[in-house]
Amino acid sequence: MPNRLADAISPYLRSHADNPVDWFGWGEDAFIEARERDVPVLVSIGYSTCHWCHVMARESFSDPAIAEYLNAHFVSIKVDREEHPDVDASYLAAASAFVEGLGWPLNVFVTPDGQAFHAGTYFPPVAIAAHPSFRAVLTAVAEAWQTRRAEVTAGAGRVAELLADSARELASGAARSAAGGQPGSEALDRAVAELVGYEDPRFGGFGGAPKFPVAPALSFLLGHGNALDGDGPSLALRTLKIMGASPLRDPIEGGFFRYAVNRDWSDPHYERMLYDNAQLLSLYTRAWMLSGQPWARQVAEKIARFLCDVMQLPGGGFASAQDSESTVDGRRVEGGYYALEQSERSKQTPPALDEKVLTGWNSLAIQALARAGFAFDQPDLVAAARRAADYLHAHHERADGTLVRASVDGRTSTAKATLEDYGMYSRGLLELALVTGDVTYATRARHLLDSTLPAATDTPIFRPPHGADPVLSRQGLVSTIDPSEGAYPSGLSASADAALLVHRLTGDDRYRRAAQASLGLVADLAPARPLAYGAVLRLFDEVNAPIEQLVIVSPDQPGRNDRAPASPYPVTLQDLARRHLAGVVASVSESQARAFSAAGFDLFAARTAPSGQPTAYLCRDFVCQLPVTDPAKLPPFDATAVLLGQIGAEERQTVRPHKH
């Protein structure tokens, strides 16, 4: 039996390489084999840090008798959902048409043409309560295929038709969205009110059990109005404070676990995902910027340390996740490592990392670390973001301008990059450009974003430049437009986020139009399902709000023997910028401003520091106030007056003394 998984990029696939199952990786070969043998296909989808994936691998896929039956009656495909999110999304959508409550491992039985007709999650080797044994499931599916073929294929065809109808409806919505149908402030207020109604009044968070961080929804709430006493920010701050002190977060290393089984946040599932922690770092940083609360900064800094100390790999990229299981005192257990005190942990081997570097997820970390490093004045966090961006530039950007989805130790996956990779990478690079003043990051971001937009169309909807996965396309199972959101933003919302920022930097209206048209695909759906479309709702809020841009321009660095002039103010413009919640906050030198301007980022045109002091340019809807050097003389915007008072109270003992 050939071992097709031994050299796979994915650590998850390699962990199944020694199974007695005759696994195929994702590709056309498996379906050709199934058609030649006239047998159904098992598409088994999971990921490296999934606890129940490990359990099923040990119990069922390692069982020689089960494997023998599986090999005789099926063609089996093993898929890493993180390497192939489009495959996972397509089969999850298909399976959800006839099975509720799906998760991972996701085991979908499909025809040789890829149409799903049965599915489930964890199947034990022996029946347990509501879970039938895996052998019984395999036997029933094989018998149905052999004796009731017409019924099976008819049912699979109906599911495929439903999915095709849904894709056509979404595509037709693209044309409608060009007319600019966006939810107004009243609809967004109702979405906030609905989330307030979901709040668990006793333990915080949303709903009962299980409890998830739902970072996109919290991001929408935190930014809805940017006022501390508003319903949205108040709910977000309450939830973040509770989560930060709950069992969902490891207090020693600082990272958050994926979710909690119980309503009181206890009994977490112990895998720690890069996308969760990157988004939560952004949230806690913004919570501190808005409220000035010490707990928000403390949690943010601990998450940042977890990302840099645990998740960042020697090459600069970030691992996609850390396992829930590890070996403690010779015994393989889930979560046992996290029950230990710090001194005891040092004697154990930490849970393994899934060292697969994903473009999109790494970009969430780049964005979060760059802004946190600026907000907290911690250059090492910005440096960590730059290392990750430089790794992606070296290993994930192809010569033809397309992106790589995943790599491990510099080896790149053949999986096609998805729209989330393009959107998240563009947004992360833009954030890094604003924090470092390095225009090359911004020009790369704009180029990548441009590649996702059609050259000439009335409905500029973001799409991956190389199309959808070819196997899924041949099977008619995928749309290149996928607005669905889960635990992190969709490719559509990530691209719209990046485009809105490029619009604010360049004034080029085609980016705003593209963002609004793309968001318009879910303009009717998102306000009614705020837990599922938090990232989209946050962007609708941004579209509805005035555009604010704050640029701080500092004199170019003095010569080696000269000293930069000391600020005459107890609270500097940089101090204020670190807490500013505007849509654009940039800190650049005069030469960097010239470079941005020359590259077409018109916000930076003619931005200088004429008096030799850092100078602030505050703009609203592209109309800029006169430049100022005294923070107290900035016109009122956002919570400037409040922030000046907070910063003065918090940092009076640490900022430089007033110079007369």
- Poorly predicted runs of 5 or more residues: 637-642, 651-660
The largest sheet is:
5 strands, mixed
Helical residues, percent: 40-55%
Tell how many strands the DSSP assignment holds.
19
Alpha-beta content class = alpha+beta
Domain Spermatogenesis-associated protein 20-like TRX: 3-163
Protein name: Thioredoxin domain-containing protein
Pfam family, one: Thioredox_DsbH
InterPro entries: 6-hairpin_glycosidase_sf, Ssp411, Ssp411-like_TRX, Thioredoxin-like_sf
Model description:
This is Thioredoxin domain-containing protein. 46% of the residues lie in helices and 11% in strands. It folds into three domains: 155 residues, Glutaredoxin; 301 residues, Glycosyltransferase, CATH 1.50.10.10; 97 residues, no CATH class. Helix 11 packs parallel to helix 14 and helix 14 runs antiparallel to helix 15. The strands form six sheets. It has a five-stranded mixed beta sheet, with helices on both faces. The protein has a four-stranded mixed beta sheet with strand order 17-16-18-19. The protein is globular. With 660 residues, it is an alpha+beta fold. The relative contact order is 0.09. Strand 18 and strand 19 form a beta hairpin. It starts with 10 loop residues before the first helix and ends in a 9-residue tail after the last helix.
